[in-house]
Amino acid sequence: MSKNGPAFDPLDVEAIERNPYPPPNDTVLAGKARRALGDPNGLTKFGVNLTEMAPGSVSALRHWHSEEDEFIFITEGTPTLVTGTGEQLLRAGMCACFPAGSGDAHRLENRSNAVVRYLEVGNRSVREDVHYPDDDMVMKRVAGEAPTFTRADGSPY
Fold first, then answer.
1. Coil, helix or strand for 47?
2. Distance separating alpha carbons of residues 110 and 87, to the nearest angstrom
3. pTM of the full predicted structure?
4. Of the candidates 148, 72, 135, which has an alpha carbon nearest to the alpha carbon of residue 108?
5. Is the predicted pLDDT of residue 113 greater than 80, yes or no?
6. Which of 26, 18, 19, 17 lies closest to 157, judged by CA?
7. Interacting residues of 31 by C-beta distance below 8 A, sequence separation 6+
């Protein structure tokens, strides 16, 4: 629990930049940082992140989840949502839902000259496969273990 009880300023949570992808995609997420908001107060059933994207950055490689629902809510800026069905310019106050197993790969791109911030909410599945169709890659994750990356056919990445 945070020192002030259940309420806190999300900007007081440390922002972490991470690039979990193997080469040659290990720098794709430069300019993106996220704050794990649920963790300070012990949330374990779902994750909540406040994510910030600098101009020119992206949220992820275009992907879809096998087991986890994903919800985003734009709090600041104008990111472009890129999915298998096309592109859509979003603005503060808009949201998007990505049901588990949909197969519609998605990502946000910050094509603007201003920072983009959004809330990202998803369940925490024990097992999860994340598919990256544009990059012939699948990330397999089991709770408590490091994720592994393969090609779509299961061969090593």
1. strand
2. 12
3. 0.92
4. 72
5. yes
6. 26
7. 53, 54, 55, 56, 57, 110
Question: Which long-range CB contacts under 8 A does 16-23 form with residues at least 24 apart?
Answer: 20/139, 20/147, 21/61, 21/137, 21/149, 22/149, 22/157
Buried b / exposed e across 7-46, counting CB within 10 Å, b at 16+?
A: eeeeeebeeeeeeebeeebeebbebbbbbbbbebeeeeee
For residue 135, report the phi and psi dihedrals to the nearest 5 degrees.
-120, 10
Between CA 35 and CA 15 the distance in angstroms is 5
What is the C-alpha to C-alpha distance for residues 152 and 157, in angstroms, rounded to an integer? 9
Strand 46-53 and strand 86-89: pairing? unpaired
The beta strand positions in the chain, using DSSP E, are 32-36, 46-53, 64-65, 70-76, 80-83, 86-89, 95-98, 106-109, 116-123, 127-132, 137-142, 148-150
43-82 pLDDT tens trace: 999 999 999 999 999 999 999 999 999 999 999 999 999 9
Task: Write down all domains in the chain, each with its CATH number in brackets.
Answer: 10-150 (2.60.120.10)
